Amino acid sequence: MFLKNAWYVAAWSHEIEHTLAQRWIAGEPIVIYRTEGGRVVALEDRCPHRRAALSLGRLIGDSIECGYHGVTLDCSGACVKIPGQELIPKTMKARSYRVVEKWQWVWVWLGDPDQADEALIPDFRWNSEPGWTYTGGSIDVKANYQLLTDNLLDLTHETYVHAKTIGNQAVIETPAITSVVGNEVHVKRIMSNTKPPPLFAKVRGTDSPIDRWQVIRYQTPANIAIDARGYPAGSEDMSQALRWFSINSITPIDDKTSRYYWTITRCFALDDQALTELIHKSILATFMEDVVVIEAQQLRMQTDHPDKHEVGIAADAGALGARRILERLIREEALASSAST
Fold it and tell me: What is the pLDDT of residues 236-247, one digit of tens each?
């Protein structure tokens, strides 16, 4: 169901403080906190004694005291105290997870810690790259995470769902070029001499024709960067261009709910706070339009006949490519796990 040897966003870095925070990721309960020295710790949110939620306990220094019976675990997950008992069983410990803070987010590796390669974290440098400024947030969505990646890999829906912000006829009139590169999917669409969509015209203050680019990069398990550009028609003059990245990482909570982490990061008008607020408000409204569609889609999939199959179209190429890659990696991971046991 889920790829475990992968990095998932657990939180924005600024959300994690010296207090207990709880997350569910791919069906696993995790308690996260920042030590007094500033390091982020992630442990299984189950006390090894009676499976109580450690996140309902309290921090004593950098250790968690379970709120049920007072069993205390250090930041490695090892038990350091059992009230009324000196002997501590070696098995009295909670699983710890590898954690990395990068690109403004806290990433947790769910699988084999020996395979936790930081180089596998998606390249979202634009969230913290000099010369760029970002705005973003997170959205809880009552839908499977793959429906969100499907949505981001097939932008033809912009014409119909987002007509007030980023959609126009050019998106459906211009075919996209899709390619699979290793475990990535790339989708590219270049729309020449077209009317800018409403948000582009508002941000740049002109309704003049543009050459519009959408360059999408999918990285497993559910990470998508969209390089969106709008050049004056016939020119690639950056002084008059609009260019931003839509950075998206979808963390499955379980098979029917997800948390959608997003940013829009741009390389122009860096100090214009009013523009940042306009973009944030507009893009959030755009994403919430997606949520309405996708949550309704999830409900109908759950209530549809199990033997009924979807009918595919050409625009599905990117989404299908991503699903096939993920299915293969999950299958290979399961076979490797079975062989090792």
Answer: 877 778 999 999
Can you give 105-124 as a three-state secondary structure string? EEEEECCCHHHCCHHHCCCC
Burial category of 180 from C-beta neighbours within 10 Å (exposed 0-12, middle 13-18, buried 19 and up): middle
CA 138 from centroid of its chain's CA atoms: 9
82 close to 99: Cβ distance less than 8 angstroms: no
- What are residue 191's DSSP bridge partners? 212
d(CA 111, CA 210): 45
pLDDT at 155 over 90: yes
CATH 3.80.10.10 fits 123-306+313-330, yes or no: no
Superfamily holding 11-119: Rieske [2Fe-2S] iron-sulphur domain (2.102.10.10)
Cα–Cα distance, 12 to 217 (Å, whole number): 22
In the chain, pLDDT over 90 holds for what percent of residues? 93
Domain limits, CATH 2.102.10.10, in the chain: 11-119
Cβ pair 79, 96 in contact under 8 A = no
Euclidean distance between CA atoms 331 and 187, whole angstroms: 25
Distance of alpha carbon 135 from alpha carbon 104, whole angstroms: 11
Q: Which of 116, 115, 76 is nearest to 94 (CA)?
A: 76
Q: Residue 306, preceding bond cis, omega within 30 degrees?
A: no
